[in-house]
Amino acid sequence: MMQLFRLFLTACLIAIIGYTSVTIANHGLNLMPVFFGDMAEMAWPGQFNLDFTTFLALSAIWVSWRHQFSPGGIGLGLVAFFGGMLFLSAYLLFHSFRTGGDVSKLLLGEQRAASR
User: What is this structure's pTM?
Assistant: First the structure.
């Protein structure tokens, strides 16, 4: 199962890099006004952006928690929030190998998993 998970993460990483590259080439780096403008309109695109923002916050909190809210962990949490799936797919892929595919270590962090 870990191989399928890693394949999924790799596919996500490649898809996000490709899509983001095309979007930047066609529209520039002008994300924030569009993102928050959609939210200000109180329509479905804004609802999606708000929902997505809460997922980004959850991802940031989890990454920070996994690193015991250390300064580095908080920094990684900020990267998770602003980097989205681009960051999270690479982060999880890296740690899936670092932990030898042990899901407990992957999700909890190595210290918490060892103390179980």
Answer: 0.90
> Which of left, alpha, beta for 38 (phi over 0: left; psi -120 to 50: alpha)?
alpha
- Plot region of 74 (φ>0 → left; ψ -120 to 50 → alpha; else → beta): alpha
pLDDT in tens, 29-81: 988 899 999 999 999 999 999 999 999 999 999 999 999 999 999 999 999 99
Task: From 78, 109, 75, select the one nearest 92 (Cα to Cα).
Answer: 109
- Burial class from Cβ neighbours inside 10 Å (0-12, 13-18, 19+) for residue 89 reads buried
Strands of the chain, DSSP E: none
